[in-house]
């Protein structure tokens, strides 16, 4: 998760607020102290934190509140609004328009992840239906064109560059003209890394800008520089009037909060944040969604957008099976394939209210990905008959497990674990399907206003208090399913190597 330490602290504060019986001045001051302490540890400027504290204190006056006002909700909403104001520059970043060329020029410090971010952005727009491409105008760093070429080839994005030409202005002009003739809609120009002391490189940046006339100039900043981001961004702003910023390496540095707040202080919008090394690890920065995830309240809208952008396989046969209360091994394989496309479990858990507090996948994203691939290998070694079965054929004929283990290069123990996970999920499908299942109850609920109102209250309770959301979700599932459903954290923990608390650790090895 991005800024996981800060997120844990803020989530714990909101959870304590939700559980407290009395909310008086003393409790409010203690809560504010904890929030300010968490922000300072994340390298947010002292003056900004001090202003935030004063603003919250001025808006929440517990002594003058009317008797019927919900103090907890008022405090939570005020803290949320002030944190959003802290990271929101109040300016909308540039949005490319389809049907005509949009030239985007990248500038930034050396080693900030500029070339990788160029490819990530090209891929991001490509997935949104734009015809995107890359131009390498970095002739200063050795191997810059090779890096962009490898990244572009991996992402299947067209590129332009030269091993012999040393004039970056000429390369950028030729590349942009070439792609404009070929009707490309997003043309991204990667320039040399520089800092404010290098006057020659700054002059070169201005020349490239005059040659390609970009619709938008994006500055790339490394989250690890913390509050220094403000002075660097101001220096670049004076030379190249960039329109937005991408902050990289947000997955590995505690100073990311300082970088975000410092940049917001320059009134320049943050367009994206880099959250990992992979090509898809680029998130659109929306202040409200960002703060909502930090406070453990999830980001349901972001989750829907993320899932819809992936164009996951829509398996009508599987939905029909679930409606009937069935779940085959093939259905499990299709679902695991979709999960692999979604990205790290910790990223998905952060978008769902309450799940971020359970610690699902935390620190185990690589282990979880490795286990998922091994599970897919196991199912790829099964026959069509075995995939379309409910898994009982392996219990009736144990030699099948030995054959599958040998064919997939795994152990019999791992095949047994996979079948155990399938059995658990089949139990969920059985609870959901059929005439008395959860799906039919949800359908009937739409016709009953009283039940709908009760459901709405449960969902509000889930989103209302960060840490308590998991319990609300479990209670709701229990009420709808009639009990007897397997625990969500235990089930996911078993699949991803014990990432969830209380989940049994998966075994290693086994017999051949």
The N- and C-terminal alpha carbons lie at a distance of 38 Å
Strand order of the largest sheet: 3-2-4-1-5-6-7-8
Could you say which structural class the secondary elements and strand pairing correspond to? alpha/beta
Average pLDDT value? 76
Oligomeric state, counting identical vs distinct chains = single chain
Counting DSSP H or I runs of 4 or more residues, the number of helices is: 25
Write the layout of secondary structure elements.
Elements: H1 4-19, H2 25-41, H3 46-59, H4 71-87, E1 102-108, H5 114-127, E2 132-136, H6 144-155, E3 159-160, H7 168-181, E4 186-190, H8 199-212, E5 216-222, H9 229-239, E6 244-248, H10 256-264, E7 270-274, E8 282-284, H11 287-294, H12 300-310, H13 316-323, H14 329-342, H15 345-351, H16 355-358, H17 365-380, H18 384-387, H19 392-396, H20 399-408, H21 412-432, H22 438-445, H23 449-464, H24 469-481, H25 488-495
Parallel strand pairs: 1-4, 1-5, 2-3, 2-4, 5-6, 6-7
Antiparallel strand pairs: 7-8
Outline:
Helices cover 57% and strands 8% of the residues. The protein is built from 25 helices and eight strands.
Question: How does this model look, in words?
Answer:
Helices cover 57% and strands 8% of the residues. It has helices at residues 4-19, 25-41, 46-59, 71-87, 114-127, 144-155, 168-181, 199-212, 229-239, 256-264, 287-294, 300-310, 316-323, 329-342, 345-351, 355-358, 365-380, 384-387, 392-396, 399-408, 412-432, 438-445, 449-464, 469-481, 488-495, and strands at 102-108, 132-136, 159-160, 186-190, 216-222, 244-248, 270-274, 282-284. The chain has an 8-stranded mixed sheet with strand order 3-2-4-1-5-6-7-8, sandwiched between helices. β5, α9 (229-239) and β6 (244-248) form a beta-alpha-beta unit. The protein is flat and about 75 Å long. The relative contact order is 0.10. Residues 357-361, 459-493 and 495-512 have low confidence and may be disordered.
